[in-house]
Amino acid sequence: MAEFVTVDRAEAGIAVLRFARPPMNLIDVQLALELADAAERIAGDAEIASVVVYGDERVFCAGDELTELARLSAEQAEAMVGDLQRALGCLARVPQPTVAAISGYALGAGLELALGADRRIIGDNAKLGLPQIRAGLIPLAGIRRLSLLIGPSRAKDLVYSGRFVEPAEAAEIGLADEVVAPDDVYTAALRWARQFTGGPARALAAAKRVFEAGTHGHDRARAEWAELFATEDRSIGTRSYLAAGPGSAEFVGR
Fold it and tell me: What are the two backbone dihedrals, phi and then psi, of residue 104, each rounded to the nearest 5 degrees?
């Protein structure tokens, strides 16, 4: 039983992956591994069409648990680094579309976690950043994703400086996809997630794998495209599209 993480069904087809480690939702190793375990369970649940990732109304995550990291020796850090990096990137391995609903701070490991989501909706009170450089560290799981998202030059500025990003800049550079009032963050995330219920789950998962392949995405797309021809959803989708146009298919997720 997880101590800090819960997975609930907000409504049919939508899972809410929520983490609460008061007061600031700092991510320690235990929380990171609990998040990864929950993400793996969601990934294997065919009844889940999309996922909302949420901290609480005040704060998504204020960063890394530095009191824990300060105690690590170099040998201990080397022993755990692979598991921790994989845990912080867990949302990218979820085949369903995911959206991070961010209120308050999304810093350090919290922003790295959110970078693995397909979409980030933030409150107009949010502050985002990767300040690990100020503690003599670097982001473990966020540099590549950030660079692909906003470009290498902007990513270097944020990582090297460790500065915070305000909502207007986050939207301008593509770090955030939507800015809403703080009280509307969760409902806006649900609204985005809702569009995928009853959708072509196999095709959505294939598209996610292509995006995750990064510079190898062109090659991955060939394989994924061809494999979709063996699915029921492809057959249903193409027939209904020809007969009645887009949006008419009733997909079955197989």
Answer: 65, -130
